[in-house]
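Good morning C.,

I know you're traveling, so I'll keep this short. The sequence:
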Amino acid sequence: MKILHTSDWHLGQSFMGKSRLEEHRLFINWLATTVTEQQIGAVILAGDVFDTSTPPSYARELYHDCVLQLNKLNCQLIVVAGNHDSVSVLNESKNLLATLNTYVVTQPAWDEAEQAVVRLVDEQGQLAALVCAIPFLRARDMVRYEVGQSGSDKQLQLAEQIQRYYQQQYDCAQSMAGDVPIIGTGHLTMVGGEKTESVRDIYVGSLESLPPSLLPPFDYLALGHIHKPMPVGGNSLWRYSGSPMAMSFDEANSPKTVCVYDTEARQVERIAIPAFRQLMALTGSRNELLKQIEALDDEQNLAIWLDITVSEDINLGPFQEKLAELCEGRNIEVVKVQRTRKAAGLFDGGGETSTLEDITPEEVFDRLLMEKEIEASRASTLKQLFNSIVNDQEDQP
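The tokens, ready to paste straight into the viewer:
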């Protein structure tokens, strides 16, 4: 049997005010075609089905449409929740989707381990693999912290519980496996995983990443959360599949793939995903940028999205008007215009007044700490608290 591993779809994402619906629809159609061409028997979606805990109705519709397409192809689907996913949203259709060969796991199965071990069968109805379907393990589902515990004690306690749960699920699968491979899933940061702008730490304040050595010896480990495809710990069979499309401009030039694991050969190959839309980040002087944009090939089906950074301290208003004129009637959309930090004069007060588009919330807070002349040790504590608040707000609808 061939098993396709994908993750981090982020259905319903609003990208600087722009919907990704058409890109996601094209990806799901491509996925169905790939399942047919590659004779895929099962798909594992390793977390972050949706971009927010309250996905728009069109995103839920697209998710269910994908389930129907895969079911028609007699392809089993395993979905585990990611840190962006709402447990209640995924659970609301869980029982219905089970009738369509789709298995959704949102929380750890501490008391009924076998409920989260999925049997994958081949066309002859024979057991081909067992999947320990492990979602993003939220700290509140894993540990109960005590008053006065230090940060390092909390990290250790959470790491021990994550290790214990993975071992429990592996042992359960091993008792059922015979000689078929055991596949694990996970939505977390493993040591050595390379993050991008659109990925933030998911165990903020407790555990930022987990050493691979803590996990049992899965034959294949299907990971999500890191958007760049890569192996973990030097093991080619423990992998992040990466997101199917660029979720931020710094991912625009990274290859996007799915992974296909062959249970007989016990080998994995990567299949490239087409870039359904071009995201381009351009930097330069006013005149250099205008020339670059004028020379762009805009014959693609979907409009090119541009992130423009001006290296000169100019008035952005007239420049944006010129950009609008240049892009009118072309398949190009400018989604962001900013000056470089140096040109914006963020901290020295020079140049034109910076805008909120020029700086991040963390930089605003850093500037406030400097202006108030907060002493270093207290500033460090305040920054940690502020970053926790920012991360908590990003989890909110």
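Safe travels,
E.
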